[in-house]
Amino acid sequence: MSANWLDKVNWDERGLVPAIAQEVGSNDVLMVAWMNREALARTVETGEAVYWSRSRNRLWHKGEESGHVQTVREIRLDCDEDVVLLKVEQHGGIACHTGRHACFFQKFEGNAADGTWSAVEPVLKDPHSIYK
Amino acid sequence: MSANWLDKVNWDERGLVPAIAQEVGSNDVLMVAWMNREALARTVETGEAVYWSRSRNRLWHKGEESGHVQTVREIRLDCDEDVVLLKVEQHGGIACHTGRHACFFQKFEGNAADGTWSAVEPVLKDPHSIYK
After folding, report:
1. What pLDDT shows up at residue B1?
2. Domain tally for chain B?
3. Chain A nearest-CA residue for B46
4. Parallel, antiparallel, or unpaired for β A106-110 and B70-77?
5. A82 alpha-carbon distance from chain centroid
6. N or C end of chain B: smaller count of CB under 10 Å?
């Protein structure tokens, strides 16, 4: 595979870039994960989001366990070519492993001297019923 | 400053996390930059986005040269506590140093064997007139 388009990406010293999944329609930022060359190539090939799991050290087809796959409608690259943005349809409406729509459910409240992060988005589905 | 809320963030081995700036209203993803503890604390203190510039190795008050500052309306943290999401008002309507609204202006076209990244968003202002 020649795939010069993959060389355009500025992979970091680990061979990774952050990838943002943004929901088509709502434009909600659902999650951020990481991709290596193979993850990005597989995403293009399959039309579904494939990431690189740093914790499991392997390719991660998003939704492989939960069924909450992401159909990729568009792929963007930023000006520095070191961040990828996926515009996706989120199957099941749940991107987060906590059972929430999106991963960014903790909101900062307070001030710099005395702040807290509060969970402000509902759990749509019990994670125990998502992951057996 | 006690600031336990800063300890909640999973800073990486460099003491950084990625920070996404998302536009209030449109929900457009404008850019991704990096933050260290001080950048996040200053962002909360000042109400304007302050990042850590990896290339310049110093705090970077977004818009300090261009005037394209970002007023921060909300700060979110993801489930793994290693990515920050800022909901911002983008002054001047231009977040990208190329003079575009947002940094994600390169769109993937083609397939895995033969793909290209095409600039699909207009330059709103000549960068030479933004940065003297």
Report:
1. 46
2. 1
3. A112
4. antiparallel
5. 15
6. C
Cβ atoms of residues B10 and A122 within 8 Å:
no
CATH number at residue A28: 3.10.20.810
How many A-B residue pairs are in contact by the CB < 8 A criterion?
A: 128
Please give, rounded to a whole number of angstroms, the shortest distance from the CA of B82 to a CA of chain A. Answer: 9
Contact state of A112 with B44 under an 8 Å Cβ cutoff: yes
Q: Tokens at residue B117, please?
A: 């990244």
Structural domain range at position A40? 4-130
ipTM, 2 decimals? 0.96
Say whether pLDDT at B12 is over 80.
yes
- Whole-angstrom distance, CA of residue A104 vs CA of residue A117: 11
Work out the minimum CA distance from B94 to partner chain A, whole angstroms.
13
- Which residue bears the tokens 């977004």? B62
Whole-Å CA distances, B98 to A105, B30, B66, B89, B106: 32, 12, 11, 19, 12
Quick one: pLDDT band at residue B6, thresholds 50, 70, 90?
very high
